């Protein structure tokens, strides 16, 4: 499915409809464009206008090809990418399990990005070794190795700890988002009542709308953190395409249909060549219209829904009202926390200094090793360079945990998790205590007794409390045989009492 990737902007959506002075022409309920084919249709549209005060606008073209399942919505299988792209690009699929030893795995490794630096270090160490052996001894006292090693270790430790802290802060923000989504969805679905008749149907559909907006908030936040400002993406178009947002007005099909990368650019990205990396904010910088802030705009619509259910009395308990408003504030906290991680990287002075310190140590290393190792200087320098530059590269990669690297946070998986959990919550009506508690297979004193709640309902309170005490005695027995005997004795006693 190519989704919204080949969609036209919303401005194209009304091209097939007859123009009107007060806005786009109406469409049929199924979402197809309505055409004025004669007086009958004209009369039909007049009746539609008179029967409904709400404007029915044409469906944007990016809504014509939507996902048919959660997997296709979030494209976790990456059908449109080749094997190399699926292997070296992420984020990592948490559902996959590899039996390869960790030291032999390439998926998630920074090895591809270290190929060119290691080749350079190999050539450099070979040059120094050859000059020292055939021309002039360039070796220096290895006391410099000890001094510089301490500084390099301190720098890499600082780089790794700050990068991991940012990665973990991003994970905490998305953990809070998942938790708040569950809580707010439960408050809407369970604690918000539904009125009788047509109003009840309207309440149900509005509940579903609000719960879909919870998912839309998570997905729109994911795209914003990746500097993807449009609404026509496969996982987002069907959730917010009907909302009036700045992102919808600024929709551009070229944004979600980028040009295919050349083989040289793709190879450069795999190898970590800095000149091949594109500016991640380029889509935002090239926008010709205001992009707004889609997550906050979605949050505004959720807030409007919460206000409406408080006003019409369907969310009547004050505690639930306070909780719903608190959940909205937590959503805003998630946005702020994620943007803090995204917009405050390690200061450039630190990044530059750490990179320079690591490279100075690697380049000076052959001079210090030659006196002790001779020709072993070449492989020794390569191993040391791999360790030092590898740690520096990992710190640089996870500094922004919201991107598309294998080691970045799997935001697509988190969004799919939220979607499936919301589907689970809405799969059944709000449960009623009387319906599920009175079932025959509700073993309230299990494992002491396999009698259902209806059977215990016919016994006295003293019998129930006596059985609860016997349950403790039975569970404290050390052997299974003694415990089972105790259960049989209690059941026989209770049956005798009930018969009397």
Automatic annotation (TrEMBL):
<feature type="compositionally biased region" description="Basic and acidic residues">
    <location>
        <begin position="43"/>
        <end position="52"/>
    </location>
</feature>
<feature type="transmembrane region" description="Helical">
    <location>
        <begin position="348"/>
        <end position="367"/>
    </location>
</feature>
<keyword id="KW-0812">Transmembrane</keyword>
<feature type="transmembrane region" description="Helical">
    <location>
        <begin position="373"/>
        <end position="394"/>
    </location>
</feature>
<feature type="compositionally biased region" description="Low complexity">
    <location>
        <begin position="7"/>
        <end position="26"/>
    </location>
</feature>
<dbReference type="Pfam" id="PF25539">
    <property type="entry name" value="Bestrophin_2"/>
</dbReference>
<protein>
    <submittedName>
        <fullName>Bestrophin, RFP-TM, chloride channel-domain-containing protein</fullName>
    </submittedName>
</protein>
<keyword id="KW-0406">Ion transport</keyword>
<feature type="region of interest" description="Disordered">
    <location>
        <begin position="1"/>
        <end position="58"/>
    </location>
</feature>
<dbReference type="InterPro" id="IPR044669">
    <property type="entry name" value="YneE/VCCN1/2-like"/>
</dbReference>
<keyword id="KW-1003">Cell membrane</keyword>
<feature type="transmembrane region" description="Helical">
    <location>
        <begin position="114"/>
        <end position="136"/>
    </location>
</feature>
<feature type="transmembrane region" description="Helical">
    <location>
        <begin position="142"/>
        <end position="158"/>
    </location>
</feature>
<keyword id="KW-0472">Membrane</keyword>
<keyword id="KW-0813">Transport</keyword>
<keyword id="KW-1133">Transmembrane helix</keyword>
